[in-house]
Specification:
The complex is a heterodimer of chains A (466) and B (403). Chain A has 466 residues and is an alpha+beta fold. Chain A has helices at 4-14, 23-26, 50-62, 115-122, 141-147, 154-157, 191-195, 229-241, 254-261, 286-302, 314-325, 327-331, 350-363, 390-409, 428-431, 434-447; strands at residues 19-20, 43-45, 67-70, 87-90, 97-101, 106-109, 127-128, 164-170, 176-179, 204-211, 213-214, 218-226, 248-253, 275-283, 307-311, 337-340, 368-373, 381-385. Chain A has 5 domains: 4-90, Uridine Diphospho-n-acetylenolpyruvylglucosamine Reductase, domain 2 (2-Layer Sandwich), CATH 3.30.43.10; 97-214, Uridine Diphospho-n-acetylenolpyruvylglucosamine Reductase, domain 3 (2-Layer Sandwich), CATH 3.30.465.10; 218-329, Alpha-Beta Plaits (2-Layer Sandwich), CATH 3.30.70; 335-409, Alpha-Beta Plaits, CATH 3.30.70.2740; 432-463, no CATH class. Chain B is α+β, with helices and mostly antiparallel strands. Chain B has 4 domains: 2-68, Uridine Diphospho-n-acetylenolpyruvylglucosamine Reductase, domain 2 (2-Layer Sandwich), CATH 3.30.43; 75-192, Uridine Diphospho-n-acetylenolpyruvylglucosamine Reductase, domain 3; 196-284, Alpha-Beta Plaits (2-Layer Sandwich); 286-368, Alpha-Beta Plaits. Chain B is 33% helix and 25% strand. In chain B, a hairpin with a 4-residue loop joins β5 and β6 (84-88). Chain B is globular and about 65 Å long. Chain B starts with a helix and ends in a 14-residue tail after the last helix. Classes of the chains: A alpha+beta (466), B alpha+beta (403). At the A-B interface, β9, α7, α8, α10 and α16 of A face β9, α6, β11, α7 and α8 of B.
């Protein structure tokens, strides 16, 4: 469905081997990390450098063909799906780390640089890139910018937007702009802040200047198990209230523990526990972090922890984290398909909301696994199921909607780090009124008047006023 | 006539009076009143001057009416367990922090000025020394309500600490000086008040102190504040490096010895009451002179930034300057004409250092704009964005040299 002359121009720009338009080749690009949505793009083009990328965007603009940017395709909202009249622009070959400036604690990278690779490159300087989504070994910084990605350690260090200093972007009409300055101070209103999290609907970041953070030299990881999920939630609130800012506060509920322990990723978590809570504390001084760990240990005991393991050396800490990091993989065994929700609630509402999510599971006779960033109130209820069973699929869909509504009623929102994409677009009117959605739509048209950049995502246009 | 219209829209209480420039001052008490007023202003082609407590940006912009946020005041909702507060933009920053302290929580942000409104701090994106350890205002904002120039109510973000639903209009509004609309309420992320709070100071030459500050950063420590202060900023005769350490008693004790070693110099420690006064006085002195600029530079380029300021604005070296060594932000307060500031802005832009005019008399703001050294093409984008929020240019905010 992509006009032959456009395909020819794309092939001339990037080399024929980097334009995929055969059905078999395009299958790879029909989904992102969310298995419940799929769409076959008209073509996929994989530029090898910034100049080629600019040519691609200009060709697509000339032919009025929509462009959908894609990094590693690990997104969880169906944000990197392209329809048959659109071209997927795959950025994985733009993968150079252009600069590591240790003195100023920053780096400049191309969008296709893999998150974990950036931290590895910064390591010799005692620095790292703090946002650490679970897909860190695969996901790209460009994708992180598009989604404003989070991760377990964002509780202390902030999400992607707190770590982006400047961007060079190509707008959908092919114009190249630089937003923000090397120090992070803007030249005008905060266009970097506006661009981060725009899910590819404003254009494509071609160069990204990020903050690097000193790597903590002292780390303690605690794993506490609780009879009740509720008590684990209350422990989280008491730790934050005591003035501690842990690097991470993660909860796995009973169903998740069972899935992990029944899988090859077995971590030795107690299978009779209602929940386990992982707490990580870090800093630059051993004694100070040790003292904080002891204080947190007392708080965990007061909150009803049955047992607490405390680890300081990397191997033991890794073991405590193992089950958390592999939880999604373990859940993959439970069914052929997996719905990963991403709602956020005020932290104090966690215990009640978790109870009610349990009720929703019972109501629809489905098993819900909760593994989540408890310190941020960012829930990830996961439902493993088989999509080919229409009755089950319908129950899962209805349960998902009930969970989202529950979180909004509790004062929360529909997505904390995965983005809206296609998956959550129909929930947008539940959190924003028509004037607010209208304002967002007008902003989008400033960047992309012809609606060529990732069209049909994020904003439900019929709900936007003005 | 405008005054009569305000009375008819908002009632008698909605008209505060007539200001010294002869402008009627309207004070809406709700988002709806604010929207009604701006819709009317937009349709009547009136221009509106926004004012908070009037302590930061002078009340001198010509307009048809002034819109004061003074009745959009108070804490609307505070939840210490969730570490979030919703506050009216007309609330005083000091009052907000005082009330939060009752619950042992705070916003770790110390904007220059005194008696400023929360709206002013957000609209001007003014962070202070604590930016080193805790980030700029954008890092503390969870959401806000904006009444656009054409009178629509836009509620963005939320009261949760993570939120990626839709576009981040919160960030666009923060630091836009009200050009997109009037911020009526703000959701801020809170932190527990640290158990220990120590301030260390050292005095000496500017370059020596700057090197010492860089030494601290290269050790991997990031203090709560690491501020290089001009003699005028501390009402003294020498440059001062002030370090503020916040956290648990153990962490602060450890940082105290690490900082001294990494800086390679002796610091003296201030008593807690003296420390509070020290910081408060520095921040208050920022408004002793008529204009304040904010310049962004890399930590490694701060010498150049400070030299440029000295050369173009502060030849006699007696102006208020506070340089946030980690964040790479230099703030200057003094008295300089349009030409000198413009020259500095041009020179700095060549070195990739943006200058924002944070406050100043109308003659300077209107001539130079709060911004005004846009990179190629971004000015078009900014003005198009502004047009989408305020198509009639109701809000009298000079963002830059606009077409």
């Amino acid at each position: 469905m992509i006009p032959p002359e456009a395909l020819a121009a794309l092939k001339a720009a990037v080399g024929p081997q980097w334009v995929k338009d055969a059905r078999a080749e395009l299958d790879t690009y029909a989904t992102d990390g969310l298995p419940t949505h799929g769409s076959l793009p008209g073509a996929a083009v994989i530029p090898g450098c910034k100049d080629e990328l600019l040519q691609v965007i200009r060709i697509l603009h000339h032919h009025r063909i929509p462009a959908v940017a894609r990094g590693a395709g690990t997104g969880l909202s169906g944000g990197a799906l392209a329809s048959s009249d659109a071209v997927l622009v795959v950025l994985t070959r733009l993968n150079r780390i252009l600069k590591i400036d240790a003195e100023n604690r920053r780096a400049v990278v191309e969008p296709g640089v893999v998150n974990a690779r950036l931290s590895a490159a910064a390591e010799p300087f005692g620095l790292h890139y703090a946002p650490d989504p679970s897909s860190q070994p695969a996901c790209t910084i460009g994708g992180n910018v598009a989604e404003n990605a989070g991760g377990p350690h964002c509780l202390k260090y902030g999400v992607t937007t707190n770590h982006i200093l400047a961007l060079e972007v190509v707008l959908p009409d092919g114009e190249l702009l630089s937003l923000g300055s090397p120090s992070g101070e803007p030249w005008g209103p905060d266009l970097v802040g506006l661009f981060v999290g725009s899910e590819g609907t404003f254009g494509i970041a071609t160069e990204i200047t990020v903050k690097l953070t000193p790597t903590p030299t002292a780390i303690r990881t605690l794993l506490a198990d609780f009879t009740l999920l509720r008590s684990a939630g209350q422990a989280v609130t008491s730790i934050i209230a005591a003035g501690s800012v842990p690097a991470a506060l993660e909860i796995l509920d009973h169903n998740t523990i069972a899935a992990v322990e029944a899988s090859i990723y077995r971590a030795g978590y107690p299978t009779d526990a209602g929940a386990v809570l992982l707490v990580e504390l870090d800093g630059m001084d051993e004694l100070a972090v040790e003292a904080e760990a002891r204080q947190v240990e007392d708080l965990l005991k007061s909150a009803g922890a049955r047992s607490i393991q405390l680890a300081s050396d990397p191997a033991k800490r890794e073991k405590l984290w193992h089950g958390r990091k592999k939880a999604f993989g373990a859940m993959g065994r439970l069914g052929s398909d997996l719905v990963v929700q991403d709602a956020v609630v005020p932290r104090s509402k966690l215990p009640d909301v978790l109870d009610q999510i349990g009720e929703i599971g019972k109501r629809y006779s489905i098993s819900i696994c909760n593994v989540f960033h408890a310190g941020d109130g960012n829930l990830h209820p996961n439902i493993a199921f088989d999509q080919t069973d229409p009755d089950l699929a319908e129950r899962v869909r209805r349960a998902s909607t009930d969970i989202v509504r529950l979180c909004i009623e509790a004062g929360g929102t529909i997505t904390g780090e995965h983005g809206v994409g296609t998956d959550k677009m129909h929930y947008m009117p539940l959190v924003y009124d028509a004037d607010t959605l209208g304002a967002m739509n007008r902003i989008r048209h400033v960047f992309d008047p012809l609606e060529l950049a990732n069209p049909g995502k994020v904003l439900p246009v019929h709900s936007c006023r003005g | 006539m405008v005054a009569d219209k305000i009375r008819s829209l908002l009632g008698e209480h909605g008209l505060l009076g007539i200001d010294p420039l002869g402008l009627p001052v309207a004070a809406p008490a709700s988002d709806d009143e604010c929207a009604l007023l701006l819709r009317t202003a937009s349709s009547q082609s009136w221009t509106v001057r926004i004012e908070g407590s009037g302590t930061w940006i002078p009340r001198d912009a010509p307009a048809d009416l002034a819109l004061s946020t003074m009745r959009l005041k108070g804490i609307v909702d505070l939840s210490p367990p969730d570490m979030v507060v919703t506050v009216g933009s007309g609330t005083s920053w000091t009052e907000l922090q005082t009330s939060l302290a009752n619950d042992d929580v705070w916003v770790p942000l110390d904007p220059p000025g005194s008696e400023r409104s929360v709206g002013s701090v957000v609209a001007c994106a003014t962070a202070g020394p604590l930016r080193t350890g805790f980030g700029a205002i954008r890092d503390h904002l969870l959401g806000l309500t904006l009444v656009t120039g054409d009178g629509r109510i836009v509620r963005v973000g939320g009261r949760v600490v993570k939120n990626v639903a839709g576009y981040d209009i919160t960030k666009l509004a923060a630091g836009s000086f009200g050009a997109f609309g009037i911020i009526t309420s703000i959701n801020l992320r809170l932190r527990a008040v640290p158990r220990a709070d120590a301030t260390l100071i050292a005095r000496g030459t500017r370059d020596h102190l700057l090197d010492a500050a860089r030494g601290i950063l290269s050790s991997g420590y990031t203090p709560g504040a690491l501020e290089l202060l001009s003699p005028a900023a501390v009402a003294g005769t020498e440059w001062t490096l002030a370090v503020r350490l916040l956290g648990s008693h153990e962490a602060v004790a450890a940082e105290r010895s690490a900082v001294g070693a990494a800086a390679g110099m002796q610091f003296s420690s201030l008593e807690p009451s003296d420390a509070a006064e020290f910081w408060r006085d520095i921040l208050a002195r920022a408004t002793d002179a008529p204009s304040t600029l904010r310049l962004g530079a890399l930590t490694s380029s701060l010498d150049e930034a400070l030299d440029s300021i000295a050369h173009h604005l502060d030849e006699s070296c007696n102006d208020w300057i506070a340089a946030n060594v980690h964040a790479g932000v230099v703030r200057w307060s003094g008295d300089a004409g349009v030409n000198r500031i413009q020259l500095l802005r041009n020179v700095a832009a060549h070195s990739e250092m943006p200058i924002t005019i944070e406050r100043g008399p109308w003659s300077i703001r209107s001539e130079l704009g709060h911004f005004g050294a846009y990179r190629n093409g971004t000015d078009r984008l900014v003005y198009a964005l502004r047009n989408s929020f305020d198509p009639s240019r109701t809000l009298a905010i000079p963002l830059g040299r606009e077409p």
